[in-house]
Amino acid sequence: MSTFRAFIAIPLPDEVQTFVGALCQTWSEQIPDRTVRWVKPQLMHVTLRFLGDTKFSSLPALVEVLDGIGIRHDAFTLHLDRPGCFPNEKRPRVVWVGLQGQLDAARALKQNIDEALVLLGWEREDRSFRPHLTVGRVKNSRNVRGYHWEADVDPLTIAVKEIQLIESVLQRTGPVYTVRHKSVLRL
Fold first, then answer.
1. Residue 15 domain boundaries
2. Starting from the edge strand earliest in sequence, which strands make up the sheet with 76-86, in order?
3. What CATH number has the domain bearing residue 23?
4. CB 7 within 8 A of CB 125
5. What angle is formed at CA 42 by the lines to CA 59 and CA 146, rounded to 5 degrees?
6. Is the separation of the CB atoms in 47 and 7 below 8 Å?
7. DSSP 8-state assignment for residue 94
8. What is the DSSP string of 134-165?
9. Please, which pLDDT band fits residue 4 given cuts at 50, 70 and 90?
10. Residue 1's pLDDT is what?
């Protein structure tokens, strides 16, 4: 195989994964079975950019670019905020938990990644960046149409000290992630 499915992400601390996993468990008990495919807590992350099928031969250039971006950005913090769904509660497709904190730093990091990827041959993304955690994908929106994705969310901190290039292998039981590279931000 000459390609791998990849994305660039911010990893989450265990405490955040555990909290959000418990939140999803509570929601899953309130809605019909098999309505939402929940993300396993250990797989939760903040996606900065989905790359799709990526040539193994482009790995050295990606690593070099990400390391270069890392040394130009200071570490920053985000924290959990209110939940919601995309595109809206009438037609929910994705359930998410929002993020607040140093959003300007997150957006600047994302912008630099996007600019560098265009130079490496990836298409420019047209949508605006709204930092969030995708926690579930709605399989049957009729079962949750109008459901209010509300919860008391602890504003747990996410210390953003690195970005990761992650390989995703899709399997029947869910994706399997392998960290291909970590690029450290300035501390």
1. 3-184
2. 36-38, 132-138, 94-101, 76-86, 157-160
3. 3.90.1140.10
4. no
5. 110
6. yes
7. E
8. EEEEES-GGGTTT----------EEEE-EEEE
9. very high
10. 64
